Amino acid sequence: MSPRRRDAEGTAAARAERRAELLATAAEVFATRGYAATTVREVADAAGILGGSLYYHFDSKESMADEILSTFLNEMWAAYDRVLAADLGARDTLTALVAESFGCIDRHRPAVVMYQNESRHLATGPRFAYLTESRRRFEEMWMTLLERGVREGAFRADLDIALVYRFIRDTVWVAATWYQPGGRLTAAQIAEQYLAMVLGGIQHE
Amino acid sequence: MSPRRRDAEGTAAARAERRAELLATAAEVFATRGYAATTVREVADAAGILGGSLYYHFDSKESMADEILSTFLNEMWAAYDRVLAADLGARDTLTALVAESFGCIDRHRPAVVMYQNESRHLATGPRFAYLTESRRRFEEMWMTLLERGVREGAFRADLDIALVYRFIRDTVWVAATWYQPGGRLTAAQIAEQYLAMVLGGIQHE
DNA sequence: GATTCTTTCTAACAACCGTTTGGTAGAGTA
DNA sequence: TACTCTACCAAACGGTTGTTAGAAAGAATC
């Protein structure tokens, strides 16, 4: 490994770090003000630079959203795949998936908020086709799990599976809009309470 | 009542009807494409007129959003107030509130979607202060109900009330994003399934 | 049939948007 | 000290935005 090579790697690493820094800032602003309503000048402001300077690091505003969302989704699916590979029973799989989901919210809160609010509009463009594909795979995974759970006798058979799927999906992810890392409850505690609710209901027996 | 007066009332009614028509169109477009991302020309297109013509009926794009949201919230609170006035037990009150909520989604789906997606950003302006007030009152109502339910022994006491509140709030309203009037399930059927899940849980006993 | 009133169109406006271009300060290298 | 490269600034660009003013078409009224 030549010195020239090491330098190139050093600057590449520094560059990637700055990118990640700017993306974190952008995600925060996009999440709080909304992607369409946010100007690149506002993102730059929050990062302490001028609007045009962002274009040294990124091709476009859209490519920022792209990188934010795809990074989050890749990590999410890596976590999900680990759970699925463990090959647990339906109930334990659901528990683990929910726990991982709240973990994702903890680590990628602004990205999850963006996904919730903007994915439907963004997904129309070909660049964001992976959003639609992720959504499809997500639904397939959960529906298969819920059907298996009913077959195994772990879940109630008198509920509409498609409805249960939507309820679980929505409640889990919408938590990103109010969750505060470092708040009263940790992501793990919220996951625990959430599971107690979803599995057992809120009614006193 | 003079003829002149009757005419004035007639045109005022026709005018209000046209307003409502345009607002329904606007709400639909705002809901599907997002408020900030939607141009007034797109709204006008959907209504079959030109962009500038909208300003004969409305002061601004913002005032359209205002009228859409306040109309929905007024009707929602009227329904909620009827439920609260009936003075039922905690469990029946919750059931009735959830049913009314899905009824609101059925009648005001685009407005509910808008409220979900945009209220946070809009509420920063003084014109939309009622959004914040409605949110506060909504939380107060639900928290009071849940606390009463625990006291009465209707609801489990081992759950975090604030979390249960958010859980119920979010799942109910987020249904507006996928609910289709005239679809496989009616609003009442969804409410029924939803209540079965929230009250009893999805786990087989 | 002339007049008025209602609703829409035509045509623009200033402001703002995402983006580009060319320059520059400063650190690293020789 | 001279050169290079990185990260940013300064200033502008064409296009789009919400919005406005005046004209025009058509129905209602007299």
Automatic annotation (TrEMBL), chains A, B:
<dbReference type="Pfam" id="PF17932">
    <property type="entry name" value="TetR_C_24"/>
</dbReference>
<dbReference type="InterPro" id="IPR041490">
    <property type="entry name" value="KstR2_TetR_C"/>
</dbReference>
<dbReference type="Pfam" id="PF00440">
    <property type="entry name" value="TetR_N"/>
</dbReference>
<keyword id="KW-0805">Transcription regulation</keyword>
<dbReference type="InterPro" id="IPR009057">
    <property type="entry name" value="Homeodomain-like_sf"/>
</dbReference>
<keyword id="KW-0804">Transcription</keyword>
<dbReference type="InterPro" id="IPR050109">
    <property type="entry name" value="HTH-type_TetR-like_transc_reg"/>
</dbReference>
<feature type="DNA-binding region" description="H-T-H motif">
    <location>
        <begin position="39"/>
        <end position="58"/>
    </location>
</feature>
<keyword id="KW-0238">DNA-binding</keyword>
<keyword id="KW-0678">Repressor</keyword>
<dbReference type="InterPro" id="IPR036271">
    <property type="entry name" value="Tet_transcr_reg_TetR-rel_C_sf"/>
</dbReference>
<feature type="domain" description="HTH tetR-type">
    <location>
        <begin position="16"/>
        <end position="76"/>
    </location>
</feature>
<protein>
    <submittedName>
        <fullName>TetR family transcriptional regulator KstR2</fullName>
    </submittedName>
</protein>
<dbReference type="InterPro" id="IPR001647">
    <property type="entry name" value="HTH_TetR"/>
</dbReference>
